[in-house]
Amino acid sequence: MNKKLLLKFALKSFPLLIIIAVIASFPFLGTQCSQFINGEGLNPADFVGEWELKKQSGSLIDICPDERVKFGTDFHVGLTCPPFTDTLWREYTTDDVQKILTYKPTQIMYRYEFVDSASDRYLYLYGLNVNRNLFYLRISQKSKSDISFVKNKIFLNSSEVFKK
């Protein structure tokens, strides 16, 4: 009789023990409970870094040319419109399964895709609730130093004669 009672108790308490174990494991897995419950993805390492807008399409061609975006590991992104230095900071989330990037305050959503070429990495954002597609190039540390070198050099445009 005791074995039957013990088995009955074990079967009834087993699902509760599983739920407690899953919740207790969140801090060890590095996942926040709200992210797990709401289906928000973790920050993919592919996003982290600085990107420069190279092209835009759709009916809303309203993003400043050469916009710079800097994705951080803390779910914040800085958006800068050169030559200005003011940075607009936004929170973002990603859904790694559906490949969706969402800017939280505005709820603008993009389906994202990473494309690699021989030497560069691109981030393509296709508007889901806005008719805008954005195509960014990752700015590497090497290209950052090259950019600062180029800024200090005086160039001529193609309509000018070579000057000595």
The helix content is 25-40%
Amino- and carboxy-terminal Cα gap: 104 Å
**What is the overall shape?**
elongated
Q: What is the tally of helical segments?
A: 3
Strand content: 25-35%
Low-pLDDT residue spans: 144-164
Strand order of the largest sheet: 1-2-3-4-5-6-7-8
CATH second-level architecture of the largest domain: Beta Barrel
Radius of gyration: 24 Å
Class of the largest domain, according to the CATH hierarchy?
A: Mainly Beta
Mean pLDDT over the residues: 74
Q: Can you describe this structure?
A:
The chain folds into two domains: 2-28; 49-150, Lipocalin. Helix content is 27%, strand content 32%. It has helices at residues 2-29, 33-38, 141-151; strands at 49-57, 68-71, 76-80, 87-95, 100-103, 108-116, 121-127, 133-138. It has an eight-stranded antiparallel beta barrel with strand order 1-2-3-4-5-6-7-8.
